[in-house]
Amino acid sequence: MKLFALALALSASGSALAAAPAAEASFPKPLPDEPIPVIETLPAQWPASWVMVHDLHFGSILDGRVMIVDTASPERPVRGMVRAAQFANMLVSSSRKEILTSETFYSRLTRGERTDAVTIWDMGTLEPKAEILMPGGKRQQSVTYPQLFQFTNGGKWALVANFTPAQSVSVLDLDARKIIAEIDLPGCAQLYPTGQRGFTSLCADGAMLSVKLGADGQAVSSKTIEGVQDIDKQPLFGTPAWVGQKAWFVSYYGQIQGFDFTGDVAKTIPGTFNVGTAEGAAPQWRPGGWQVIAADAAGKLYILMSPNGREGSHKDGGTEVWVVDPATKTRVSRIALRATATAIGVTKEATPRLIAARTDGVIDVHDVASGAFLRTLGTAGGESPILITVP
Amino acid sequence: MAGFDKWTERLSRGVARRTSRRSTLAWLGAAITGAATIPVLPVARAASGSPHGGGGAANAPLVSTNPQDPGDQTSCDYWRYCAIDGFLCSCCGGSASTCPPGTEMSPITWIGTCTNPADNRAYVISYNDCCGTSSCGQCLCNRNEGDRPQVRPQSNNDYNWCLGTQSSVYNCSTAIIVGVALDQPK
To answer: Whole-model pTM?
Structure first.
């Protein structure tokens, strides 16, 4: 190592000889030596302008990652990165000061022994603190759906969706660092935390199933809520916008449906409504993208819309964001994006910002009130930014 | 434990009540013989050519010499790809019907029905994934006609269906003719 440093020093002095003496005269003192090594750390409480952008990394899915992005800093947007391997899911808890990734690994990268694990990362250092192994090779691998990995029990437990294709849910005690229960969930998918300790799942017949968990993590009761969605005629995007423990879903055709997950059993919020329509569509405006609905702190909803809505367009991305107020069931405004976007999020800043992850990988920031484009963050969200998490 | 068994029984009965035998069979059939392919990439054909997934077909056209099997097999528009989702094996060292060297073909597949424009027959196409090597990254093709949310796994292409293989690492997708459909596609 020392030899290498010496070689570098020689090579540097060689180029210095060639430099003009006049330049040295302009700067009589050399630049100071810099300490080695220095590793950056992040503030204990992240600023409200920071978001996490999940990069599924299509070009090499086994090497996915989550980018930590300061949306207020176009000159230095990337603040760090956390590994999110092989169709991973990610959770963040500001109160625990932890990021959790649920991942799958093979001992020889693409082959060998499979290990499924949840890794707990420190939010300040981005170093791993602990891991919880999940034996059996069951973890569901999908394009990034946030509702496959969720907190419950006040953030003390995590729920992990399994798919082999038999469906089940693993309950993890994050403090004891172990799996405490596994609950079979035949015919149902996606996990929406419900009540103090439990979850709700959407089922293949259009019903919902709410499961209450006991202190040991085992299911103590369950309740079916029939007919919450018509999967053929009005399918709901699986990823809703959360306002506390209420969640607003949008259908492929723009119908908004709210659910209240505050109690042990999910409840439908009465009064569905449509985001409406507008001119200029071919053939019609529909929601389009991967993360198509977001909410601000005041409870207004933001829906990513495509003017090229048709059967099969629901993942194509959108070019406008329509802002609707669920209290009045009316559209408040339309925000034109600079390019087709895949995912949207809204920050919790005093003046909230709309963050759009474009299909070309670029992240743009807009003002939510005026819709004005404020700044671009370039490819700070990685190769294939697919999900925006506002901690 | 007895309490939990009772609860499981209640849950199973509830599911049985809610799910018709036909749909259960359909789901089991899809799960066993194979269901949807690929990791689905939510970037559609419209976006091919974008940096996502390594971009679209930059290759020169790869056209079959058989006039009964027309079209560019590296293009998302090739007739067999009517329900495909992922990287086209034709761009990855395999072909429309074969996996690249060093991969393992998933036994679990999604079956689509596509019409051949040359002979106007509807063919059953099996979209077997090739697994065990990292994402090919070439010729991303994502069509979502008929795709439904994850709650209906047999019609959702967001699951990684490299399931029955030694490794769940996804490489690319094939589109193999497995028969002539009895009925015309919708």
So the answer is: 0.87
